[in-house]
Amino acid sequence: MNFKRNALKAAFPHTIPVMTGYIVLGAAYGILLSSKGYSFVWALLTSLFIYAGSMQFVSISLLAAGFQPLATLAITIMVNARHLFYGISMLSKFKGTGILKPYLIFGLTDETFSILVASDPPEGVNKKWFLFFITLLDHIYWIIGSLLGSLLGSILTFNTSGMDFALTALFLVIFIDQWRSTKNHLPVVIGVGSSMVCRMLFGPSNFIIPSMVSILLLVTLLQKKIELRNSL
Questions:
Q1: Taken in order 156, 41, 63, 139, is the CA torsion positive or negative?
Q2: Which of the listed residues 1, 76, 123, 162 has the most CB atoms within 10 Å of its CB?
Q3: What residue ranges do the domains of the chain occupy?
Q4: pTM, two decimal places
Q5: Average pLDDT over residues 26-38
Q6: How far does CA 187 lie from the centroid of its chain?
């Protein structure tokens, strides 16, 4: 069991930025859910089994609208389409993770993806358990935040206007942190540039999938150049 304990100790520092963000964001989600009349049980179950940040915020409106499975499926695919590309890029990272792999796939949120891509286990630390504990800790933070927000929202009255912007704010913080931590900004330029162009071409409601495809193609075509800059 020592190797698991070592992996947990190594993983925890990497998750501290996500902890501070997820508890606040999860609380915002819990408060919004509570404002629609849903108890903390809903916050617990949705955070435990859905666990898809932006989609959970969207799910509040879907729950209030009633049972519409086909519409829910279509919206979920559109909102979370980017995870298809996350999964492709993590194929080598998750290789050899065995029984832990299904949970690693399930827990691959935007923030967890950012940490896993940028982090490698220290020497002597088991890789698959290192990845697992990063994913698990982030999940636990989100559950705690959503429960706290739901319980707080059931006790106090909040003006929830603009609260759903908290998720966007966390994305910006992670973006700035990654920009400052690396000298090679070409992948970021590709991502931002492709997204901006696709948004202008396809509009705000339909640009996500085209931008993801564009990013994948450009990164593939410029892979050697990106690797060369990383080696400098």
A1: positive
A2: 76
A3: 2-161, 182-232
A4: 0.73
A5: 87
A6: 18
Closest listed residue to residue 28, CA positions, set 43, 15, 14: 43
CA 148 to chain centre: 20
List the one residue out of 84, 107, 82 whose CA is nearest residue 97. Answer: 107
What DSSP letter does each residue of 39-106 carry, written as one string?
-HHHHHHHHHHT--HHHHHHHHHHHHH---HHHHHHHHHHHTTHHHHHHHHTTTTTTT-GGGHHHHHH
Please give the torsion angle defined by the CA atoms of residues 101, 107, 108 and 110, in that order, rounded to the nearest 10 degrees: -170
Task: Give CA angle at 152 (147, 156), nearest 5°.
Answer: 160
CA 162/CA 164 separation, integer angstroms: 5
Closest by CA position to 51, among listed 94, 105, 100: 105
pLDDT of residue 146 exceeding 90, the answer is yes
Residues 55 and 112: their CA atoms lie apart, in Å, by 16
Q: Distance between CA 56 and CA 76 in Å, rounded?
A: 10
